[in-house]
Amino acid sequence: MEFTPGLHVIYGESGVGKTNFIRQLIGLPFAGKTNFTLDVHAKPEPVQMILQNPENQIVSPTIKAELAFSLECFEKDNETIQARIKGLKKKLLFSTDWNRHPITLSGGEKELLNIVTGFSTPAKLIVIDDGLSFLNERYKQEIVDQIKKEINQNNLIVLWFTSEYSDLRFGHTANELTLSSFANIESYRSLQYPKSKMKPGRMSVTSENLTFGYDNIPLLKKVTMRGKNIRSLGLIGLNGSGKTTLAAIMLGLLKPSEGRLKIDLGTNSEPAIGYLDQFPERLLGADTLSNFLVDLEKEGKLVPAKRVQCLKTLLNYQVNWNLIKDRYALDIPWSALRLALIIILTHCEYDILILDEPTFGLGWEQRLILYRYLHKILLNKHLIIVSHDNEFVNYCCDFIFSLDDQSLIRKEKVYLG
């Protein structure tokens, strides 16, 4: 294979070896097993890699310092650095307090920050490891336009490895990596989820003038929503619009500065709500999945009969429990960890599950697996899905709330299955 200056999009399901390919390409060691090796005859230098987990690339305590960090590695003149920082701020697609800590940004905003800083280096080859998968459609198009402009101005080679099949449309070339091949795609098909009807729900969600922010940085402003008879609620909006913040308030992890929010299922008791973070390793910390199951049992969230059923379900949905149960979260591929945790949580004594960016890192076949699984659990459970993946939300939810214009849409026909 040979890559000339341009944007080369390489699609692959999770687990086919995209990260292994990247690490071999740029000369980094790879600890896991591999089903292929690369013989690199020539590559331009220097090389810049943009990581899949956006939190792993951020090193500075403020956004401004993060923008300056990569510049300071190659430039010593302070006036030049300050002038370039102003230019980078304009490329970020969002405006904020530049002294804000990057950890408070949304997943998509972190990705934008990493893309902008990555392209501020004098690299000739830039490799992106699923580094745009938190972005909504609008921001993804805008940042791809920026990338193509950088390619034209600086004669760059950009290899964008992605688990989103629809990203193939952005590239100057489209390619697919599988377990057995690497091939150019001349044309790619339109993919759609299968259809069936959704069972009506009992969930009601009401918010009145809900307001929240960090250190004078408003994230939610007087959010008002009234919905009832919900089976599955989708929360959508631009990156940084407050989707994850709203989910944290629903869960009780954050308290609004103004207003109120109530979720109920029409019973006299408060519903038990479970939550899967958009960064699933946070749920485990420095622990293993096996110990996580033990903790859930101790807390009465996972009864013994459901534990047996849960392990059978993991196997049925192509999750090798014996392979991942004693590994730490950071050592498990994101897709496997995410799907395993969703299956585990759906077997627990939770009435409502909040899933934050459940499709991140999943290829099309894996999204179908998740999609069909959610169809089954929605017979008895209720869901709140936080996602930039509007197509997935559109098929999985009978109500959709957009934080961009605070509109709640009840779908007349909902398809799932």
3D structure, described in words:
This protein is of the alpha/beta class. It folds into 2 domains: 6-184, Rossmann fold; 203-410, P-loop containing nucleotide triphosphate hydrolases (Rossmann fold), CATH 3.40.50. Helix content is 33%, strand content 21%. Helix 2 runs parallel beside helix 4 and helix 11 (334-346) runs parallel beside helix 12.
Index terms:
417 residues; Rossmann fold; 2 domains; 13 helices; globular
Number of helices, counting only DSSP H or I runs of 4 residues or more: 13
- Helix and strand succession? EHEHHHEHEEEEEEHEEHHHHHEHEHEE
> Largest sheet, if any?
6 strands, mixed
Strand order, largest beta sheet: 2-3-4-1-5-6
The CATH topology assignment of the largest domain is: Rossmann fold
Q: Tell me roughly what share of residues is in helical segments.
A: 25-40%
**Amount of beta strand:** 15-25%
Compute the gyration radius: what is it? 22 Å
- State the CATH architecture of the largest domain: 3-Layer(aba) Sandwich
Number of domains: 2
| Average predicted confidence as pLDDT | 91
Concise overview:
The protein is of the alpha/beta class and 417 residues long. It contains 13 helices and 15 strands.
